[in-house]
Amino acid sequence: MIIVFFIKTATASAVPLDSILSSENLQKITENLNDLENYHGVRVIFDVTDSDGSIFGESLYDFVLKGLQRGPNRNWNVLVFYNVKKNQLRFVTYAHCSLGEENLAKIKGTSPVQDVLNSPSPSNEDISKMFLFISDELRNLILTSINSSSTCNIEITHKLKLKSNEYAVPDSVLKAIYSVIMDKSWEESNPGGFYVSQNFIPGETFDFLPFVTSDKKKFISLLEEKTKFSDKEIESYYKILTTEGNIVLIEDYPDDYLFHERIHEIIHKELTEEERNLLSNKKISDFDPLLSANLPEFTLVPAALRLTLSTGNWQEIYAYMAQYEKYPSSQDYTRYIDKEVYDSFSSNYPEEYKIYKKVFNLALR
Ligand SMILES: [Zn+2]
Fold it and tell me: Which of 135, 193, 238, 346 fits 32 for a cystine, CB–CB 3.0-4.6 Å?
C-alpha cells in the first residue's frame, strides 16, 4: 500500500512522508496501516503539507477528497493531517463522535506529540517519532472501538418515513417550479427538495393584465412541454407545490434532503419571532472567521456551498449545518462545513447555538 498522497490542488503541496520519516519508522507505520486496512477494513492516512492554508478547512477537504467518509467501516477511518510549515496537527474523522473526541485529544496531548507541537522547529526525527506513536495509538484505539458498543451510531439504515405534509414527486415537477421561481433554464434546474413557506407561483395575481403570464401558467406550460403528465396530474402537483407547510422532494430522495427541509419547516413554524430574529441576524462571516483572512482555497465552508448560502435565504446555513451534522457522509469536497464552524458558533454565539440545537433536536423526532 502506498501511504504518500498528494492534494490535487495548485495551492497545497504535499510533502512526501519519506522525506521526513526514517525508513524504519515509515515501515512500521506502513505495517500498522496495512493491518488496519486489510484485516479490519479501516483506513488511516497520514498526510503532510506545507501550505499556507487553514489546517481546518484544508484537512477536512482532504478527508472527503480521499473518500474517507465512505465505506462500511467509515466510522473508524482517520486522517492524520500535519502541516509541517505551521507545525499544526489535526485528526479528522467521519463523524465527530466516531472514535471519541476525548480519545483523540488524549493522543494529541501526550508527550511525543506535544514535544513536536510545542517546539519552534521540530527535527525530522521528532516528527518521525510522533507519527509512529500516533499510528500505534490509533491502531489500539481503533481495535478497541471496533468491538465496543459505546461508539456512536451514525449509520443510516432505512429511509425516513414521509409525514402527511411531505411528498415525493417526479424530478421534473421540482425542476419546473425551480425554473420558474429562480428564472433558470430547464438544464440549470436540479433541486432536490423544497419547503413551501408560501405560494411562490400564484395563478391569479396578474391574470387580469393582458400579455402577462402568471407563474402558474409558466409552470403548467413548462410541464406540458417537458413531460407527458395529464392536466389532472399537473393540477395536483401544482396544489402540492403551493400548499403552505408542505415539503416536496424528488422521487428518490436521500434522507439528508428530507432532514434539511424539515429544518426549514421547524424554523418557519416552531420558533418564536424572537428566536427567528436572533438567528437571522447572523451572517455567514460570523460562522466562518477565516472568511476575512483572505484564504479563498481552504475556508471552513467551501466556495460552492458559500455561493448557495449567500444567494439563498438566511436559514440555509442552519439547514446545511443540521444536515451535515446528522448525515456527515452527505458532504463532499465541494460542499462541507468544517467542525470548527460548529465549535466557534457554539462558543461565540451560545444563545443562537441553543436555538439551533433546539431546531436540530426537533427535527430528530
Ligand atoms: Zn435549504
Answer: 135
User: Cα–Cα distance between 227 and 299 in angstroms, integer?
Assistant: 41
- The parent domain of residue 63 ranges over 17-146
Q: Is 8 exposed, middle or buried (0-12, 13-18, 19+ CB in 10 A)?
A: exposed
> What total of structural domains would you count in the chain?
2
Q: Give the pTM.
A: 0.78
pLDDT tens for residues 195-249?
Answer: 999 988 887 655 555 556 788 999 999 999 999 999 999 999 999 999 999 999 9
Domain boundary among 146, 177, 207: 146
CA of 229 to the centre of ligand 1 (A): 27
Ion ligand 1 contact residues with beta carbon within 5 A:
316, 319
